[in-house]
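User: tokens in, sequence out, please.
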């Protein structure tokens, strides 16, 4: 006899992508939490990624923790398989999800306008936005009831962890299952901090950085400022490869703060002896956002300011525009993009360019790299992990290397003479301390912790850390690592 509720996993068990977890409630009904693409060198092909290998019958709803593609990229496949239920997510995610899925649809399926429009209209009809912190009744059957609640996860705007309360009508027993989604690192400049759930009988926990600790985040803005100072002195362009959602908005927020403080310093100067760096006019430094998707997402972030943390909203009350300041220039068309590339290559005017994609494996950043990697005036600044084998990882590996280094970009070799640096502290994920703190922060320990969304070493490292900490508290908690795909 099958014992309910139980879990099955359709992704994020072999690595850090493809999150897709099914909570079976009884013989006839279940919930799906996330439906993401597997990404990276070991992922299925793009065509394979458009299919789901599980039965969608009886899935009452899809619950989306956040809108990164490794959590939502298989939604087209889910719809193609016949799913017609609601897509439940937080209110900010409801605004961001159509933007992300439209971009992915254009790149991976079809860019024909009418087809894209029909697809996005269908997605919007299915989306049901839920407020944070409020219970929502989802399934009410003769044998089982299920309600869910979304809580802030601090990973990006709208990200949530999911609490599911499942009541067995016959026995009267109640089981609470918590899906962490992706948990954010502390001190995110825009987002409110994660608060652990009050309890969980089963905790499905991500483990991306389960075996690692992050670098100190408190100095990251100072390091970014120093990199900009250096580029200004060299009359060069800073090229920052960054993904459109989350990382880009954090960077803009911190750059605005640097510009704001530089303006205050300039007002206070009044001394005839001026340091050469201070003589550079920061007020004329263009901040170029060269990504149509990042521009649309940044606009959505601005509109969703009520979900920012107190410090970020305080800046708005001071008349500042953290994500829409005067020196921010957004590039839309490809023709305009090429003009900007040529202008920065041929002139000595300093600039900061934020462009996708984050791994330098495609997108507009590649044209900037082709144009400027060979000039030591310029600088490539990495603010995120570069996956092994990507052009970004190859460029990053040249950091501090002297002599003759070349990289292959679009089947042509380019010399790397630009400066290359990596700024630590920009990870959007909780590290081992954060993950353990989330699991131990409940009023009572979970009966079982299920580790997903991590490489094997990360999951095993986190399992050891959890068991050690629970043992220190005099507790014994079952920690499992599911196998399969």
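Assistant: Sequence out:
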């Amino acid at each position: 006899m099958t014992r309910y509720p139980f879990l099955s996993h359709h992704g994020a068990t072999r690595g850090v992508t493809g999150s897709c977890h099914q909570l079976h409630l009884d013989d006839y009904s279940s919930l799906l939490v996330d439906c993401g693409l597997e990404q990276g060198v070991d992922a299925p092909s793009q065509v394979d990624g458009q299919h789901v290998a599980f039965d969608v019958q009886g899935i009452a709803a899809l619950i989306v923790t956040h809108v990164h593609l490794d959590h939502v990229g298989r939604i087209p496949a889910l719809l193609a398989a016949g799913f017609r239920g609601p897509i439940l997510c937080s209110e900010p995610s409801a605004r961001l999800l159509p933007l992300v899925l439209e971009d992915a649809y254009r790149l991976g399926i079809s860019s024909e306008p009418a087809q894209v429009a029909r697809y996005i209209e269908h997605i919007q009809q299915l989306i049901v936005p839920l407020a944070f912190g409020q219970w929502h009744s989802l399934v009410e059957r003769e044998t089982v009831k299920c309600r869910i609640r979304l809580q802030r996860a601090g990973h990006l705007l709208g990200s949530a962890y999911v609490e599911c309360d499942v009541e067995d009508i016959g026995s009267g027993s109640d089981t609470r299952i918590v899906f962490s989604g992706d948990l954010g690192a502390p001190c995110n400049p825009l987002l409110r901090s994660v608060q652990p759930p009050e309890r969980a009988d089963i905790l499905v926990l991500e483990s991306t950085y389960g075996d690692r600790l992050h670098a100190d985040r408190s100095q990251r803005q100072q390091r970014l400022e120093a990199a900009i100072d250096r580029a200004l002195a060299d009359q060069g362009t800073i090229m920052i490869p960054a993904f459109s959602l989350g990382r880009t908005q954090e960077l803009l927020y911190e750059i605005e703060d640097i510009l704001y403080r530089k303006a205050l310093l300039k007002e206070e100067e009044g001394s005839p002896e001026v340091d050469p760096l201070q003589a550079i006019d920061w007020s004329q430094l263009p901040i170029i956002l060269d990504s149509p998707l990042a521009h649309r997402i940044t606009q959505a972030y601005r509109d969703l300011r009520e979900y920012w943390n107190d410090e970020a909203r305080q800046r708005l009350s001071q008349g500042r525009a953290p994500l829409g300041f005067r020196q921010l220039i957004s590039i839309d068309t490809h023709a305009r993009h090429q003009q900007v590339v040529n202008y920065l290559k041929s002139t000595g005017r300093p600039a900061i360019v934020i462009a996708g994609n984050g791994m330098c494996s495609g997108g507009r950043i590649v044209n900037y790299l082709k144009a400027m990697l060979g000039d030591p005036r310029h600088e490539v600044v990495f603010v995120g992990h570069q996956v092994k084998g990507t052009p970004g990882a190859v460029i990053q590996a040249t950091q501090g290397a002297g002599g003759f280094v070349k990289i292959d970009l679009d089947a042509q070799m380019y010399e790397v003479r630009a400066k290359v640096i990596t700024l630590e502290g920009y990870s959007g994920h909780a590290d081992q301390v954060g993950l353990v703190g989330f699991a131990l922060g409940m009023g009572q320990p979970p009966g079982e912790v299920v580790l997903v969304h991590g490489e094997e070493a990360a999951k095993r490292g986190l399992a050891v850390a959890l068991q050690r900490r629970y043992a220190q508290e005099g507790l014994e908690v079952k920690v499992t690592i599911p196998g399969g795909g």
